[in-house]
Amino acid sequence: MQKEPIVPAGGAPPAGPYSPGIRAGNLLFVSGQGPFDADRKLVGDTFGSQARATFANVERVITAAGGDLSGILRIGAYLRTLDDFAEFNDIMREVLPAPHPARTTIQVQLPGFLIEIDAVVLLPDRA
Q1: Where does the signal peptide begin and end (predicted)?
Q2: What average pLDDT does this structure show over 9-31?
Q3: Is 80 helix (H, G, I), strand (E, B) or coil?
Q4: 3-122 has which fold?
């Protein structure tokens, strides 16, 4: 099976030696996305605004691969503090359609931002 890098137009360039997404068959593995614009500038000064910007970046990678948010099978959510856990649940319900994906949420020391999200996505068959 071949691996295909997915690099969305208008997205922030990777900060290291990785692809924003890797497609393998009908699976897409989305690298950790944070609340950054295309110039790698931080977006948002609250947890809610950063979380929504981060989900938008995840969606940008998924869309570039031909999918949408409904295909997310699993997310990893990395929060600077678990004090934001309840708000994260509310935003996740708002952004992701049911049935909701499997999820792991952990507290980590993030460098200058409040949230990072990675994902595994089931993509539609290619035409």
Answers
A1: none
A2: 91
A3: coil
A4: 60s Ribosomal Protein L30; Chain: A; (3.30.1330)
